[in-house]
Amino acid sequence: MRMRAIALLILSSLFFVSVQDVSAAPRADVQNDRVTFAFPETATFSADISSGSTITSIVLEYGTEHQTCGEVIAKAFPQFTPAATVTAEWVWDMRQSGSLPPGASIWWRWRYTDQSGAEFVSDKQTAIWLDDVHDWQTLSSGNLNLHYYGKDQAFAQSMLDAGVEGLRRNKEQAGLVNEDVMNVYVYPNYQDLQDAVLYEASWTGGQAYSDFNIVIMGLSEGNTTWDQNTVIHELTHLLVGHFAFSCIGTLPGWIEEGLAMFSEGGLDSGMQSMLDQAIRADTLITLRSLNGGFSELPDKANLSYAQSYSVINFMIDTYGQPKMTELLIALRDAKPIDEALLEVYGFNTDGLDSIWRESVGAAPIAVSAQATAQPTPTFVPTYVPVSGAPLAMTPTPYAVPTSSFDTTNLPPNRPPLMLTLALLCFCLVFLLLIGFIVLSVVVRSGNARKNKGGQNE
C-alpha cells in the first residue's frame, strides 16, 4: 500500500508538471488570418501577428492536401518591419509555380519568433482553390461528388449517374476501386474549363489529377453521350492512378489513356475511322512513342487515344484482365515498362507493337522506328481531346519556329570583307618573314664558304 501511494504521488506530480508545461507554452497571437484568391493566378496569404516583444522573423508554411511520397512543406519569407505587432503578407503566384487543379485543398500556418527567442506557430488553416464567381452546386453519391454550374439539376444528375456507372465498370471489369472522396468539377463549356487552369493544351476537354482525386471537364455543345463518356474516362484515370501510384516512375501514356478509353466501352465511329485510315495508310504512331505525353495537335492526339485503346483492348481480349492487373502492379513497383511487359507477357514494347499491328492488319513496324533507348517521360496530366465530338472551339493554327530570327533575307553565307583582307595581309607578312629567314640562311652559308676558302689559301 505504501509503495502504491508513492507511485500515485509520483504520477500526480508528473501530471501536474505536464499540465503546467502545456499551460506555460507560448500561444500564437494571429488575427485576420486569411487567403484571398485571384483565381486562377494568385493566392495571397495575410495576417496580423503580435507578440510580447519585437517580432524578428516570420515564415509562412503552406502546401496542398494530395497523395504524395512524403510530407512536403513549402516555406515563404514575407517582408515586414520588425515590431511587436506586424501585418504579414505573401503572394503565391501560380503563373510561376504552375497551376493547381480547381478544388484543391490548400493549407497554411504562420511560424514566427520574437526578440526574446520564443517561437510561435499558428493554427493550421485550409481553403479550397476555386473561383467565387460562379454559383457552384453539388450532387453526391457515395464517395463521388459532382460540382457544377450553368446547368439544371436533371442534367447534373445524369452526369453523376454516368460517373457511378464508370466506377461500377472499373470495379467489375478491372478490380479498380478508390475508397477516398473523388470530386468532379463540370464546366458548362470548354472555354470556362481552359480559363480555370493555366498553361494547358488548346484542345483539352477534360483532365484528371489522380494525386488530388480531382477531375475537371468541360461540356460539349449538346453531345450528352460524349460528356458522359468523359466523366467515365477521367474517373478511370483516378482509379488507375490510385491503384498504380508510385514514388519513382509514371505509367506510360498509352496504358493510362488506353484503359480510360476502354472503360468508356469502345471507340466512336469518328475515332474508329481515323484509326482504320492510319492502318491503311501506314501512318500509325509507334507504341514506344506513346510512352510519354501525347501531341498537342488534335489529329495526332486523337489517333494516339484511338491507338492506345486498340492496344489495351487487344491485350485484355487476348491475354485476359488479370494479366493487365499484374502489369499495373509491376509498374507500381517501379519496374520499367519493358521489364514489366517481359515479366508478365513475355515481350517488350516493340514486341507488343509488332503483334498488335499484325492483329489489326497493319504493316510491320519499321526497323528505323525501333528506338534503342528511351528517356524517362515527363509527367503530363491526362487529357480528353475536345475533337472527336462536335468541337466547341477551333484551335488556332500556328507555325513552329525553327530559329529566333528571320533568315529569308540574309546575304550569302561568306566571311566579311575586312576579315578576308586581314587574313590576306597576315599571309603576305608570313611569306615575307619566311623569305627573309631563307635569304639570311643563304647569305650566312655563302659567307662561311668564302671564309673557309680564304683560310685554305
Q: Which structural class fits the helix and strand makeup?
A: alpha+beta
Share in helix:
40-55%
- Write down the overall mean pLDDT: 82
CATH superfamily of the largest domain: Collagenase ColT, N-terminal domain
Give the overall form: flat
Order of helices and strands: HEEEEEHEEEEEHEHEEHHHHHHHEH
Structure description:
With 457 residues, the protein is of the alpha+beta class. It folds into 2 domains: 23-129, Immunoglobulins (Immunoglobulin-like, Sandwich); 137-385, 3-Layer(aba) Sandwich (Glutaredoxin), CATH 3.40.30. It has helices spanning 2-24, 94-97, 153-174, 190-196, 224-243, 253-264, 269-281, 298-319, 321-332, 337-344, 349-360, 417-456, and strands at residues 29-38, 42-50, 55-64, 74-76, 85-93, 104-114, 119-121, 125-129, 137-141, 144-148, 182-187, 204-209, 214-218, 382-385. A 6-stranded mixed β-sheet has the order 9-10-11-13-12-14, with helices on both faces. Strands 3, 4, 6, 7 and 8 form a 5-stranded antiparallel β-sheet that branches. A hairpin with a 3-residue loop joins β1 and β2. It is flat, with a radius of gyration of 35 Å.
